[in-house]
Amino acid sequence: MELAEIVNFLDEYLQIGNYQDVSNNGLQVEGKREVERIAFAVDACMESFRGAIMANADMLVVHHGLIWGGIGYIRGIVKKRIEFLLNNNLSLYAAHLPLDAHREVGNNATILRKIGAKPQKEFGEYKGVKIGYTAELNEPAAVSEIAKKFESATILSFGREKVKSVAAVSGKGCFALNEAIDEGVGLFITGEPEHEAYHLAKEGGINVLFLGHYESEKFGVLSLMEVVKEKFGLETVFLDIPTNL
């Protein structure tokens, strides 16, 4: 399969042109023209690059890419990373906000489906675009039981024991906590814990579930991997490289 065909599909499917993002979304580093196997990972780093080569992948698709608003200098760690990609003819494709916000395979839509809720209203405005969703559970559920659906989670229990309304913004999503409070959401799910969220949640009377930045953003790449596999019939592999953050 030609690299260009895969890139064109991803660009259109993820609608990467619709986002004002600090990430240079799309094909960041061009490698082999022909692609037979694609690796997926959360982060662009030497560990994921080496993992992709060990898995005999020709292309790596990530959520957190290598180029954020351009490259100022090609030296040090940046030089080593780019050198490795070019020497191994490995293509790197990144999708940051587009993979947070996508209604089908995005991190936030997938998180909500995991707890049995269907993504409904767009939520969590970031740089002029809403990248998360709110949802309603069919029946009220205990926050402690919802937390069990994830590998690891930290709970701030400042709302009702059982909730029906939920909102999700993955990664560093505490910027949307005030919005969740204003909308009367029962449970706000995000990734990275932030110190200032504690008293804000307490005074706002809302439950918050922190999944960890990495854990909250595995969902998008895993879901996208299945779409690409079905679309092109290519071999795919997920490189799980947790940061525990």
Task: Itemize the secondary structure elements and their pairings.
Elements: H1 3-14, E1 26-29, E2 37-43, H2 46-54, E3 59-64, H3 76-87, E4 91-94, H4 97-101, H5 107-114, E5 122-126, E6 129-142, H6 143-147, E7 154-157, E8 162-169, H7 177-182, E9 187-190, H8 197-204, E10 207-210, H9 213-216, H10 218-232, E11 235-238
Parallel strand pairs: 2-3, 2-11, 3-4, 8-9, 9-10
Antiparallel strand pairs: 1-4, 5-6, 6-8, 7-10
Helix pairs in contact: 5-10
List the main descriptive attributes of the protein structure presented here:
245 residues; Udp-n-acetylmuramoylalanyl-d-glutamate--2,6- Diaminopimelate Ligase, Chain: A, domain 1; 2 domains; 5-stranded mixed beta sheet; 11 strands; elongated
